[in-house]
């Protein structure tokens, strides 16, 4: 076997092995969701009589579609709000930098290191006084602010890759900063904005800490839906697996359908 072909085969085997290891917990959860509780807590096996009993009981106990609708509204709403704030900020830092621009970017990124529990009490009290506990608006604002450093960083990187000559040509034709941003920069950065949008939606969809602490029923997203199936009597693994499968299914399909756009946007700055 030629060395080039042998190397390609080895890389392919290693790649599939790593992918299977990463995907194994999801596969095991999917299999457990089709087992009875007795089989799920028993000896691990790949061969069993599948049943839809867990999915039927979950839908009968909780309105899955209401939780899913909350997740969609909160994830998309917070991402759009984050982009509305981050685009002008990234534009200003990319094309009108100051001596403190790099410091500001690093400081914004450092805020991601702050444990959320450290600010839970003041934020809870503020939302309580505003009457926003268990509301979608509160989660939209919090998720937007939570992901804002990442959104600004990604957009800043994409904007820095746009040739300045194009923007300067627009300025010579009389374009004002707002027109330059809307008619020149945004169309050129559309792949980067799309990938930023996708990543932010995924991060918001998977967020659980604020959802569990600030919602009860009306605004609870799918992460709260999963947690509702843990009871003081213990964990019902089959039902919990079915609930988790239903919760991650939409974002898995979404990620699968948009993976090319996501990878293209994330590697845009690296291959430019």
Radius of gyration: 23 Å
Overall pLDDT metric:
85
Strand residues, percent: under 5%
What ranges have pLDDT less than 50 throughout 5 or more consecutive residues?
A: none
* Shape call: globular
Q: How can the largest sheet be summarized? A: 2 strands, antiparallel
N-to-C order of helices and strands: HHHHHHHHHHHHEEHHH
- The tally of helices reads 15
Distance between the termini: 36 Å
State the share of residues found in helices, binned by percent.
over 70%
Strand order of the largest sheet: 1-2
Description:
The protein has helices spanning 3-33, 37-41, 53-61, 64-95, 101-110, 120-130, 136-161, 164-172, 177-188, 190-206, 209-214, 222-227, 237-257, 259-266, 268-271; strands spanning 230-231, 234-235. The protein is mainly α and 272 residues long. It has a two-stranded antiparallel sheet with strand order 1-2. Strand 1 (230-231) and strand 2 form a beta hairpin. The longest helix has 32 residues, at 64-95. The model has no long low-confidence stretch (mean pLDDT 85).
Explain the layout of strands and helices.
Blueprint: H1 3-33, H2 37-41, H3 53-61, H4 64-95, H5 101-110, H6 120-130, H7 136-161, H8 164-172, H9 177-188, H10 190-206, H11 209-214, H12 222-227, E1 230-231, E2 234-235, H13 237-257, H14 259-266, H15 268-271
Antiparallel strand pairs: 1-2
Helix pairs in contact: 1-13, 3-13, 4-7, 4-10, 7-10, 8-9, 10-14
């Amino acid at each position: 076997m030629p060395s080039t072909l042998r190397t390609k085969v080895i890389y392919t085997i290693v790649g599939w092995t790593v992918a299977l290891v990463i995907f194994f917990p999801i596969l095991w959860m999917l299999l457990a969701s089709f087992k009875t509780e007795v089989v799920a807590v028993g000896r691990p096996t790949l061969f069993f009589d599948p049943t839809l009993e867990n999915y039927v009981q979950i839908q009968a106990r909780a309105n899955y579609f209401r939780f899913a609708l909350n997740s969609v509204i909160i994830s998309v709403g917070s991402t759009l709000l984050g982009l509305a704030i981050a685009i002008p900020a990234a534009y200003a830092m990319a094309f009108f930098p100051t001596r403190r621009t790099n410091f500001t970017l690093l400081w914004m990124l450092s805020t991601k290191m702050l444990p959320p529990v450290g600010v839970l009490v003041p934020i809870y009290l503020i939302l309580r006084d505003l009457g926003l506990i268990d509301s979608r608006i509160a989660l939209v604002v919090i998720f937007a602010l939570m992901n804002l450093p990442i959104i600004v960083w990604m957009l800043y990187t994409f904007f820095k890759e746009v040739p300045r000559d194009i923007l300067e040509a627009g300025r010579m034709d009389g374009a004002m900063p707002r027109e330059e941003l809307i008619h020149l920069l945004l169309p050129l950065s559309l792949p980067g904005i799309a990938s930023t949008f996708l990543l932010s939606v995924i991060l918001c969809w998977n967020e659980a800490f604020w959802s569990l602490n600030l919602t009860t029923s009306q605004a609870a997203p799918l992460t709260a839906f999963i947690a509702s199936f843990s009871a003081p009597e213990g964990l019902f693994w089959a039902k919990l697996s079915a609930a988790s499968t239903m919760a991650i299914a939409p974002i898995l399909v979404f990620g699968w359908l948009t993976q090319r756009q996501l990878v293209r946007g994330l590697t845009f700055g690296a291959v430019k």
